[in-house]
Specification:
- The chain has 115 residues and is mainly α.
- The protein contains four helices and no strands.
- The longest helix is centred in the middle third of the chain and has 37 residues, at 41-77.
- The chain is elongated, with a radius of gyration of 19 Å.
- The two termini are 31 Å apart.
Length: 115
Amino acid sequence: MPASYAELHQLLEEKLAALRSQLEDINREVREDGVGYSNHMADAATEVFEQERDFGLARRLQQTYRDVQHALAKFEDGTYGICESCGTRIDLPRLEVMPEARYCMSCQVRLEQQR
């Protein structure tokens, strides 16, 4: 596990590259597969289901991609590792598990309870 902010920065860079590759793969697959070319209704339904699943996965990957970009931008402006809600330092163990975390654990729990 990373033990320093420099290692976390490197981890975020690697994660961004991996997410970019995954998004390109999904987008290519969705474009190539298309829907409606099947002769059987059940096959068409399966195609629609798989395409919707891929769209959902792509949306989640895009959000994670934006979160990682945001974390890298915070490195640039010197605010990485600071909770966006209360302004305290985010514990290093949390950042090691989720380097794109925006909130300390207390604020994250509070935000999730409000949903």
